[in-house]
């Protein structure tokens, strides 16, 4: 029997709380690909959780860790990669992901994002007095970048497994 053909990596980008991790896991299972999560990979390599990295070294340092993950921290094919929400904010990063594979963006309304991320202390950028305002500000800043993905999928009203099916159909059939 011949080895299965290599599939290009599929990068899931989008804001916090849009479902990148859940959809990524489901997609990888459906497609028989490896699932990677940039946040988890960085936490494992650093031996500490993201809030600790932000608190001790600052956001710019975390962005550098994300850059290193993309450029030298993961396999070149057969992976579904759930990317941290701010990973694509580095200059040239979305272009780099598109060179390396397929890029799908997950979207959700600010209200959905707020309800999905509420009370979760793992996201230092939303650990502020007015997370709704912070979400609005960051979304406005990042939307033009997210929209450069190959395709966008809205996750407000469907179960994440449905979203995974849509993405699979769009890219692999
Ligand atoms: C961030 C998103 C987080 C994590 C970090 C910063 C961001 O990942 O990388 O807290 O800047 O949007 P998720 O999108 O998986 O929550």
UniProtKB/TrEMBL annotation:
It comes from Cerasicoccus arenae. Binds 1 Mg(2+) ion per subunit. Pathway: Metabolic intermediate biosynthesis; chorismate biosynthesis; chorismate from D-erythrose 4-phosphate and phosphoenolpyruvate: step 5/7. Belongs to the shikimate kinase family. Substrate binds at residues 39, 63, 85, 142. Transmembrane segments: none annotated. Mg(2+) binds at residue 21. Its cofactor is Mg(2+). It holds the Pfam family SKI. The keyword Nucleotide-binding applies. It comes from the Bacteria. GO terms for cellular component: cytosol. PANTHER family: SHIKIMATE KINASE, SHIKIMATE KINASE 1, CHLOROPLASTIC. Catalyzes the specific phosphorylation of the 3-hydroxyl group of shikimic acid using ATP as a cosubstrate. Its EC number is 2.7.1.71. PROSITE patterns: SHIKIMATE_KINASE. One of its GO terms (biological process) is amino acid biosynthetic process. It is found in: Cytoplasm. Keywords: Amino-acid biosynthesis, Aromatic amino acid biosynthesis, ATP-binding, Cytoplasm, Kinase, Magnesium, Metal-binding, Nucleotide-binding, Transferase. Its main location: cytoplasm. It catalyses: shikimate + ATP = 3-phosphoshikimate + ADP + H(+). GO terms for molecular function: ATP binding; magnesium ion binding; shikimate kinase activity. Monomer. ATP binds at residues 17-22, 123, 158. This is Shikimate kinase.
């Amino acid at each position: 029997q011949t080895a299965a053909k290599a599939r290009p990596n599929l990068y899931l980008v989008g804001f916090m709380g849009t479902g990148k991790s859940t959809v990524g896991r489901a997609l990888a299972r459906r497609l028989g690909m490896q699932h990677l999560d940039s946040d988890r990979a960085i936490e494992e390599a650093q031996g500490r959780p993201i809030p600790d990295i932000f608190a001790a070294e600052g956001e710019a340092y975390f962005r550098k860790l994300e850059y290193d993950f993309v450029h030298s921290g993961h396999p070149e094919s057969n992976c579904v990669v759930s990317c941290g929400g701010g990973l694509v904010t580095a200059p040239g990063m979305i272009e780099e992901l598109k060179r390396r594979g397929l890029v799908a963006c997950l979207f959700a309304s600010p209200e959905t994002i707020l309800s999905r991320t509420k009370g979760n202390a793992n996201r230092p950028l939303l650990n502020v007095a007015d997370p709704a305002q912070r979400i609005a500000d960051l979304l406005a800043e990042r939307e033009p970048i997210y929209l450069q993905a190959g395709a966008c999928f809205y996750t407000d009203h469907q179960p994440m497994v449905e979203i995974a099916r849509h993405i699979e159909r769009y890219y692999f059939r």
